[in-house]
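Can't paste images in this forum, so I'm doing it all in text. The chain is below; anyone willing to post the predicted structure tokens underneath?
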Amino acid sequence: MAAGPVDCHCHLSAPCFQPDVAAVVRAARQAAVAALVTVTEQAGEFRSVLELSDRFPGFVLPCLGVHPVQEVSPEEQRSVTLKDLDAALPLIELYKDKLVAIGEVGLDFTPRFASTDEQKEGQRQVLTKQVELARKLDLPLNVHSRSAGRPTINLLKEQGASKVLLHAFDGKPSVAMEGVKAGYFFSIPPSIIRSDQQKLVKVLPLESICLETDSPALGPEKQAFAK
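Text version of the structure:
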């Protein structure tokens, strides 16, 4: 791998990139990016991300995982359930030697996705299963925690997760420091220039900070959509 910054969390398999994904990769290389850690949100994306990693070896680094919010259609999303793991977990085990992490996994307690205790508990169960698999395979976790900073860190610690990257963490800095004490890393997106994450990076140790884009979301300018 060439020297340079690593994008620790991006969605290179997103539909908007597919018309000319080679140009996206070329632009990243021209910007001196060393690698793109590419995550998934559901089992249907796994093949695409693995193909991208084969097409751009050593540059596109694949993660496979199931996100706490599942897309039903471009207009509809729902909270994850254990059934969403049925197709995913066997594939993660099958391709474990190709992966740099399991992700994107986590909790998302945004009210429009998880308004009930049942939905939140379902997300906890899905995350726990993926933490257990990560420990079994000795793989890191690439973690989402929107509106659920403390519950996410608490669950990760309770389940014995030790190799953790928390992406775009929006919890309190004091909660993040509990993650730092557990040895967790935090990746910061370009949207920091317009967000409260500026408070977070002021307290995080430099050695706990990584970089990400979460592209195509969380750029320096507000997007027309939110994942």
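Strands lie at 6-10, 35-38, 60-64, 69-73, 76-79, 101-106, 141-144, 164-167, 185-188, 209-211. The chain has a mean pLDDT of 95.
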